[in-house]
Amino acid sequence: MNDLVLTVDEAAERLRVSRWTLYNLIRSNQLQTIKIGRRRLVPATALADCIKTLVEVA
């Protein structure tokens, strides 16, 4: 992951899930995002943290 931040579509693609599933992760506070203007972006570190948390819960 060389990108500092990802778009919602890029993050969903990296996780191999739909945009709907990604937004559910955001709504449930399992995935942290930032807003810059009207854009919602996913920090690459937040994506890694989310994966780590999901693995621990599984």
TrEMBL record:
<dbReference type="GO" id="GO:0003677">
    <property type="term" value="F:DNA binding"/>
</dbReference>
<dbReference type="InterPro" id="IPR009061">
    <property type="entry name" value="DNA-bd_dom_put_sf"/>
</dbReference>
<dbReference type="Pfam" id="PF12728">
    <property type="entry name" value="HTH_17"/>
</dbReference>
<dbReference type="InterPro" id="IPR010093">
    <property type="entry name" value="SinI_DNA-bd"/>
</dbReference>
<dbReference type="InterPro" id="IPR041657">
    <property type="entry name" value="HTH_17"/>
</dbReference>
<protein>
    <submittedName>
        <fullName>DNA binding domain-containing protein, excisionase family</fullName>
    </submittedName>
</protein>
<feature type="domain" description="Helix-turn-helix">
    <location>
        <begin position="5"/>
        <end position="49"/>
    </location>
</feature>
